[in-house]
Amino acid sequence: MHEIRSPIVAVLGHVDHGKTSILDAIRESRVASKEAGGITQMISASYVSKQDIENLSRGLAEKLKVKLVVPGLLFIDTPGHEAFTNLRERGGSIADIAILVIDVNEGFMPQTAESINILKRYKTPFVIAANKIDALSGWNKQDTKSFLESFGKQREDVKAKLDEKLYSLVAKLGEYGFNSERFDRVSDFSKEVAIIPVSAKTHEGLAELLLLVAGLSQRYLEKELYIHKDVPAKGSIIEVKEEKGAGTTIDAIIYDGVLKSGDEIYFLTNSGVKKTKVRALFSPKPAEKVVAAAGVKVIAPGLEGAIPGSPFAVVGESVEEELKKQFKKIVFESSELGVYLKADSLGSAEALISLLAERGIPIAKVSIGNASKEDVLFARSIAEKNRYLGAILVFNTRTPREVLRIAEDERVKVIENNIIYRLVENYEEWVKEEKEKEKKEMFAKLNYPARMRFLPGCCFRLSKPAVFGVEVLDGKIKPGAKVMDKEGNVLGEIKSVQEKKETLPEACQGMQVAVSIDEVVLNKDICEGDILYTYLTKEEIDLWGERGELLAEDAKFALEEIKKIILKKRIEKK
């Protein structure tokens, strides 16, 4: 028989915009007495019962035409996790709906944009909690949990100020392809994102937030909320923890079925699917069984290496194969060249894999957890074949100092960030910088465009090598540069450049220096007053033409003169 479960709600948003404060406000807003059915602090989750939502929003339900059917709301309260992003292929996700918290005074920030993109990518329904309305200049706190009741008692200028802030959010959401409006002005919740002004500090707006999340969940996610209470559990690991006296435990969310003490479960590790037997359950008190939707702490042997954000399920027909398929899609090692991805959870890894694929960045390996020495050596093997792919992209985990030192010694780039999109951008910026550096190094080895004049009275040695004085008219000269005359005849190669008997690496425009050239005989091949040029190949001329910004203005003139001489010489040969 089908029963409806509590929707699972993820709370997202930028750092300091009030994610934790919103959850704290939800926990603290108990209006019922401390009997069963009150707001219960669960393992890695917070539960709000139907009764508490009704008590909190008394009078509002009729006004907003919401009749609650769901038994309550289960909030995932692990900060910053992306658990809701995976398990989509099986028709559901850990979170059914999300609350995106935005500081109404600050507006969009980097992690706000990231959250929007993730919600959009995985088509997760969401509402906006426009937090910190109490910080608006002139806001007069009211003793109510209802935004509408409080808003009605504010001054007109304060109302106008809030509307101005909200419509800046509406405009920004429009840039991401979402139509949105303040919740009480929404005409069709299936086409517009509801914005609920709230204050986590004063609890104003909390009634509408809970009521709308529950109401929208039951209206638009009805099929996803149907469960069989008598079928084996399916869920997701939220956190892996070491508990004193219990060893490694997992905090998990069950989104379907029932989990019982003594059940055998399959779960994922970096090395593949593992099986264990449940010894004890806490939800939050000891329990023989836990029914979806619920948070639960699972105590069982062999949970070391369990991957946060990964699915688990009670052992049954085809369960192991399903998990193996998911594992191979996300945690893998390829024979192809690509970057190495390290993430904090399966959901994060999945989001990054998708984003990297969109940007055309190949992946050689993906694993969960902190980077190790072995990971560095793997990346080095890639770097030896393609230095731009020999990088480790680390999301939301800490790389040990010793590993960073080894990476530096092995010349492996480790890029860390706790914002998914910034991590990818950081990698792309690094590749761009490295290519630019490589080009500059390459250009440093090219012959540089230059004109020089053989100074009269400065013939120091006639030949083998010829040593004579020159003035650099344009560009710069350096040892190794080939020299030609105005007819395009290559005369020889500069062996050294000296000034007052001191050897120089180069000489720039305006300098008067002595140069030595083995192949030249003075007063035969060249004479005092002659204008000489550095010889450039066609490839060098083209490269300098592409990167004119690397040339000084005087060198650009020299380049044009050299091009004319080379072109004339080529035509004469034909």
Can you give me a brief rundown of this structure?
With 574 residues, the protein is an alpha+beta fold. Helix content is 30%, strand content 30%. A hairpin with a 5-residue loop joins β27 and β28.
Can you walk through the features of this model?
The protein has 574 residues and is an alpha+beta fold. The protein folds into 4 domains: 2-227, P-loop containing nucleotide triphosphate hydrolases (Rossmann fold); 229-317, Translation factors (Elongation Factor Tu (Ef-tu), domain 3); 330-433, Translation initiation factor IF- 2, domain 3 (Rossmann fold); 450-573, Translation factors (Elongation Factor Tu (Ef-tu), domain 3, Beta Barrel), CATH 2.40.30.10. Strands 3-4-5-2-6-7-9-8 form an 8-stranded mixed beta sheet, with helices on both faces.
